[in-house]
Design goal:
Elements lengths: L5 H12 L13 H11 L13 H15 L4 H32 L3 H13 L7 H15 L7 H9 L2 H6 L11 H9 L10 H10 L9 H10 L3 E3 L14 E3 L9 E3 L2 E3 L4 H12 L2 H15 L6 H13 L4 H10 L14 H12 L9 H8 L22 H17 L6 H9 L5 H8 L4 H9 L2 H4 L2
Antiparallel strand pairs: 1-2, 3-4
Amino acid sequence: MTTPAQPLALAIAQNRFGLGARAGDAISAEPKQWLNDQLDRFQPAPATSTDLRKTPDIIAEYSEDRAELRDLSEADRMEARKKMRQAGRKLYQDEVNQRALSATTTDTPFVERLVHFWSNHFAVSVEKPQVTVLAGAFEREAIRPHVLGRFEDMALAVEQHPAMLFFLDQVRATGPNSMRAQRAQENNAARRPGFNENLAREIMELHTVGVRTGYTQQDVTEFAKAMTGWTVDGIGGSAQADEPGAFLFRPGMHEPGSRVVMGKSYAQKGERQAEAIIHDLTASEATATHIATKLARHFAADDPPAELVGTLKQAFVRSRGDLPTVYRALIDAPQAWQADARKFKSPWEWTVSALRALGPHELDGLNVVQLTNQLGQPVWRPGSPAGYDDVAASWAAPDALVRRVETAQRLARMADSSTDARALAGEVLGSALSDASRTQIERAESPQTALALLLVAPEFQRR
């Protein structure tokens, strides 16, 4: 297998690796070099995010608002809760708009795609009120700074971020033999605190080694005990907070003693115990296979080529989880450059590519939250901790395609009326544009219809 000829390789680089071409984009370098260069140019903090708040500020305000509820009458409390929900939705909407704006304007779209990939791999859901206000900060603080670092560092940042700790019910996890549990037993045996296994289970099942890789229920339980005491400063029974909203380990909530996970004993004290387990999980060959398979599926095909999975796995193992090394192996792999566009765009991917094609000014007045809800992929709200599916069967149902056509018509009506769809099709699809689609666009009865036909052309809906 060889890399396609330059024009087609350019289209693949922009659409399969990137987020879709923009009108007027000029790639001076060879396509693979253009992708590799992005690994050196990516800025973790996009310019569009400077006005967004950090997690400690968000949690401090959230906690103050909740504390004030206690002193209110029932009627005032209901009204205050309503305002809190509205404020939370406004913050979520601002974060989604920033994410969309960053995706449509970035000049490092390959790395931006990788941010979205990892955010979905380590999925949280805004179904929980605490996560509604933190999901955007979670991606900015735990994913973006580590997208070009080591997998272990990203995993640890993710698992200790308040959004994940709230989402998977970790913040009050208390060991059954901890000092806090013993005090609770003395005061009221019926209210003795406990722990759950949500975070430990998802780390093993979804974030690292993956299902059916040899761990048992007992391993999950032991890992969960090792993480007791992981919480967020300012909540979980503390009257004083040194750094409200930051990750905090509370020794008094931690289950004492050694733990045995997947046949290895961990005698570390305190928070180091769980960190040592995560270190071994992220470095395992099972994790390398899991990550390689997901990356290959995301960039190459729903049923990823075994040879590509093997290549990425070896890059992960050889580099000890250095993500840029894995990305470079992906760029060099011929299986990722197959000429037939085999990946069907998810609603988010299609939305971003449409906005990049039409121009970022189309975000003005556009409710991205509403749009992604209608298309069936609300941002940061998957139905489970597994995140959104990455296969065509989840997104190509007839009703979903009808909604996509309706959205294309709406975006076309919002676009600049002077936009020439025929010229734009050539710019954003290049040699991937088929004769059939070109003919349909040329014969459209109006400029808006021509733009809509471009956005729903088979070549535009695949990457």
